[in-house]
Design a protein that fits this description.
With 370 residues, the protein is of the alpha+beta class. It contains 14 helices and eleven strands. The strands form three sheets. Strands 1, 2, 3, 4, 5, 8 and 9 form a seven-stranded antiparallel sheet that branches. Strands 6-7 form a two-stranded antiparallel sheet. A hairpin with a 5-residue loop joins strand 2 and strand 3. Helix 9 crosses helix 12 and helix 13 runs antiparallel to helix 14. The radius of gyration is 19 Å and the shape is globular.
């Protein structure tokens, strides 16, 4: 296995908010139209206050960083041109009772079937795609990655402020997202066929309308020959998105090598994962985390160090170990999105400060993003 050939790509979801009131604004079609004229193709999300970018396929973290900076800068400019502001935040800091659903046939079908759940969406995540083309290998790698999902959630938590107040969670998005019947950690699968049978069951009972509604935090992509890790809030900064992508790719490489050596992933119970998820969403990088394999409670920072240690051999082989540890040191020094949101809120208890901090972080280091 040549690790340098393992590709990675990133999708980031963003909010569009009013520059003055900070309320979500239904302008995704207008911003997407402007972006298309600038050579950037945006995806429309379920609610019309959201847009999504998709990177190309990369083998070097530096190249991914450069592209994501360009995308964020271009989309922020298009948002401004349409009297909107682009925010990388897991939930809107200020929200109405519901959001307008994007007017496409598929999204309207989802709204009809799932009712208020669809209208209360407005949640923004980050999805990392790693090349794992074989379906059976993909589910085995997924099994190895399951215990690390809470660590990635804690690292990228960026939805602490909701309805202009401290939600009590570093990632309130992760709590709201799990209301969907197909959301959360994937089951432990023993084969690709078992995975396919679970998807078929959800289709048959109507808990999903199509395979794209498999919202597990790790899933096989329906579009690309990749394994897609979807646990994360959209990170506050481009650097944090690339940090996440590098860690996910290195962990997936490590897992695939273990599978090829005949190792078996620990069958972590759903209850242990739920506890670790809740703690990661509640505490983020502050306080304690839970190791779902051993059921040990330990500082969240220790859990993060264990993840870096697990991925370190692959990171070194990729030439990205120093890149990752340098970014991680900066995140720990300045705080991740949730920590920055709460620090801004506590200065004057003014939502303007929170939105300003989010806007700065969203386009930090991006061309044309100011």
């Amino acid at each position: 296995m040549n690790v340098a050939d393992v590709t990675v790509g990133v999708e980031e979801e963003f909010l569009l908010v009013d520059p003055v009131s900070h309320a979500p604004v239904p302008k995704n079609t207008e911003v997407a139209r402007s972006a298309r004229h600038s050579g950037v193709e945006l995806q429309l999300e379920l609610t019309s206050c959201q847009v999504e970018t998709a990177s190309g396929v990369h083998t070097r973290a530096e190249d991914l960083l450069r592209e994501l900076r360009g995308l964020r800068g271009a989309v922020a400019r298009c948002a401004r041109d349409n009297d909107a502001r682009l925010l990388a935040a897991g939930v809107p800091p200020t929200v109405p009772d519901s959001y307008p659903v994007t007017d496409t046939p598929r999204y309207q079908r989802i709204a009809e079937r799932f009712g208020r759940l669809a209208h209360e969406q407005g949640l923004c995540g980050c999805h990392v795609h790693v090349a794992v083309p074989d379906p059976d290998m993909a589910v085995q790698v997924s099994n190895f990655l399951r215990p690390w999902l809470p660590v990635w959630l804690a690292l990228t938590a960026n939805s602490a402020v909701y309805r202009a107040a401290d939600s009590g969670y570093a990632s309130w998005r992760s709590i709201l997202w799990r209301r969907w019947p197909s959301a959360g950690p994937p089951p432990y699968f023993r084969s690709g066929a078992e995975y396919d049978a679970a998807v078929a069951m959800m289709l048959a009972c109507g808990s999903i309308l199509d395979p794209d509604m498999v919202y597990w935090d790790i899933r096989r992509s329906t579009t690309f020959p990749t394994l897609e890790v979807r646990i994360s809030d959209v990170p506050a900064t481009v650097e944090e998105s690339v940090l996440l992508a590098s860690l996910v790719r290195a962990a997936a490489i490590t897992a695939e090598e273990a599978v090829r050596h005949g190792d078996r992933a620990p069958d972590v119970s759903a209850a242990a994962l739920r506890a670790a998820y809740w703690k990661a969403g509640q505490a983020g990088l502050d306080g304690e985390g839970v190791d779902p394999v051993s059921a040990r409670v330990e500082p969240a920072g220790t859990r993060l160090d264990r993840l870096v240690g697990y991925a370190a051999p692959a990171l070194r082989e990729l030439g990205e170990y120093e890149f990752v540890t340098d970014i991680l040191a900066r995140v720990r020094a300045r705080g991740n999105g949730a920590q920055r949101q709460l620090a801004a809120l506590r200065r004057r208890h003014d939502i303007d400060d929170v939105v300003a901090e989010l806007a700065r972080a969203t386009t930090a280091g991006c061309p044309d993003g100011a």
